[in-house]
Write a structure and sequence with these properties.
Distance between the termini: 13 Å
Number of domains: 2
CATH architecture of the largest domain: Roll
Largest sheet: 6 strands, mixed
CATH class of the largest domain: Alpha Beta
Strand order of the largest sheet: 2-1-6-5-4-3
Strand content: 25-35%
Helix content: 25-40%
Order of helices and strands: HHHHEEHEEEE
């Protein structure tokens, strides 16, 4: 595990602790996870091998989500989302900023959104700088999501900072939370340098 991966893991662990209402460990709260600068250990290698299958499954799930979203296929999209009441979405503009709770309400909002896009429109979604972290039966994906919409001669790009949370349910990963925050227009989007 690289130093950057350890740093991201410490940040994700701290966020998960805060989200679950548990005080983060002192080392995590300051971003200084124990052993942050040390090399790979046998435990790291075993964990990395064990989570590779989960990472592959999560990436496949997000590809299925993106494909269904771009195709405005509500049934395929809902198949990627957990059918439990703890499902939440917080969507920014160009949607009306809102908290959507539960799969029934989520489905209704997505159906209305898809119906508002003319069939001839070009509609694409891509993600950049994806980071996945698996923490047992919960996983997190952080990224920048760009949505492109073109209707006739008019086009618009929209970029958001996005956090996706997944839960392993009956052996399969499902999306339980999506939170998108608009990137300030004056900043574009910034990323950290890789490999440092």
């Amino acid at each position: 595990m690289t130093i950057e991966q350890r740093w991201r893991a410490a940040c994700v662990a701290c966020a998960m602790a805060v989200l679950s209402g548990v005080a983060p460990a002192p080392g995590l709260a300051s971003g200084l996870a124990p052993g942050l600068a040390s090399g790979l250990t046998a435990a790291d290698e075993a964990r990395d091998a064990a989570t590779q299958a989960d990472l592959d499954a999560l990436k496949a799930l997000m590809r299925a989500f993106t494909s269904a979203y771009e195709g405005r296929n509500l049934e395929q999209l809902m198949a990627t989302i957990a059918d439990t009441e703890d499902v939440t979405f917080f969507l920014p503009n160009p949607f009306v900023p809102m908290l959507i709770e539960g799969p029934v309400r989520g489905r209704a909002v997505l159906e209305t959104f898809f119906a508002s896009i003319p069939p001839v429109a070009i509609f694409r979604m891509s993600t950049h700088d994806d980071t996945f972290e698996v923490l047992g039966d919960v996983a997190i994906n952080l990224n920048y999501t760009t949505i492109y919409l073109q209707i006739g001669g008019l086009s618009r790009n929209y970029t958001a900072r996005t956090t996706n949370v997944f839960k392993r349910i009956d052996g399969s990963w499902k999306i339980v939370h999506i939170h998108g925050s608009p990137v300030p227009k004056e900043s574009g989007y910034l990323t950290t340098a890789r490999g440092q």
